[in-house]
Every structure is written in structure tokens, then in C-alpha cells.
Amino acid sequence: MQNLVDTTTSEFGGFDILVNNAGTTTAGSVETTNKDEWEQVLNVNLTGAFLCSKHAVPQLKGSPSGRIVNIWSARAFVDAPDKAAYCASKGGVSNLTRQMAADYGNDGITVNTICAGPVKMQMIGDDESDWREYREHVLTPFIGDPDDIANVVSFVVSDEVRYITGHNLLVDGRSTVQ
Fold first, then answer.
1. What is the pTM of this model?
2. Is position 86 annotated as part of the catalytic site?
3. 2-171 falls under which CATH superfamily?
4. Least buried of 5, 50, 113, 156, by fewest C-beta within 10 Å?
5. What angle is formed at CA 115 by the lines to CA 117 and CA 33, rounded to 5 degrees?
């Protein structure tokens, strides 16, 4: 990550925005998830956001509009059977967001998380039957698409909302209402 920050700063003269958007999951409860599976999910989802942010913050401190946006899941707030590691990692990022907002607010850096609900993406499939389960959990007549998330990213990184920080914004078609 330090090399990526150094290369980006060298080639582009700096940067103003970090978007953490890596994630993985595994099925399993606390009882059935093995330690390697647990660590893999937490390493990608939580430690990845920590390391990316850690190396980006010194550059963002010098930016007139430093922004960190974590793209995570509404699963930070609602349970999911057999997703112990995933839900724990998402809850961790939610708390890390608030902590970083407290730590770097005086440096002019805002930190927010976009907690996405069901969003159409290739890893789930294109067939309508693939989406039946997700449709049952949203209150909108459609499943979100990547543009729904991208539009909120554009919103939270804009100077017009520089006063919003430390928030976990649900962009979920109200799928958390269960």
C-alpha cells in the first residue's frame, strides 16, 4: 500500500480520495468457521481497509478535501445466518469509520461508510431467479445497481457535504427493515 500511495503521489501529484471497496466472505457460524477462514475474511475486509487508510492518511492530511469512503455492507447492522466472519468484519469497519473520523476530523479528512444492501453484480448472476431471495428483502420495486452506490460516493466526497463525517449511510432499498 505504501508503494501504491508513493506511485500515485509521484505520477499524479497527490490524491484527495480513498475508496476502500474490497471484500470477501465465507459461510459459517462461530462454531463451524475455522480459524483460517475467519482470518481470511477479516484480513480482506477489515485489515485491508485499515492498511489502505493507514498509508493514505499522511497524503490526505495535505489535501484540501481529503476523503475516505468505505464501501461495505448493510450486514454491519443486521444478522445473517452462517456469516459470522463477514458480519464481524463489516461491524468492525463501521466502528473503524467512526474512529478515523474522530482521529482525522481536525485534519480536514472526512470518513464515511456506504453500507450497501442488495446490488446487482456479476458474482450473484444475471438470471432473475438468482435475485428472488434478495427481492424479498427490499422495500423498493427493484434491486440496486452499481450506479446507486456510485452516486452516493460522489455525494459524500463532494465539497458540498464536507460536514458529514463518521457516518454509516445505508443505501439498501431498506433491506435492513426486517
1. 0.86
2. yes
3. NAD(P)-binding Rossmann-like Domain (3.40.50.720)
4. 50
5. 80
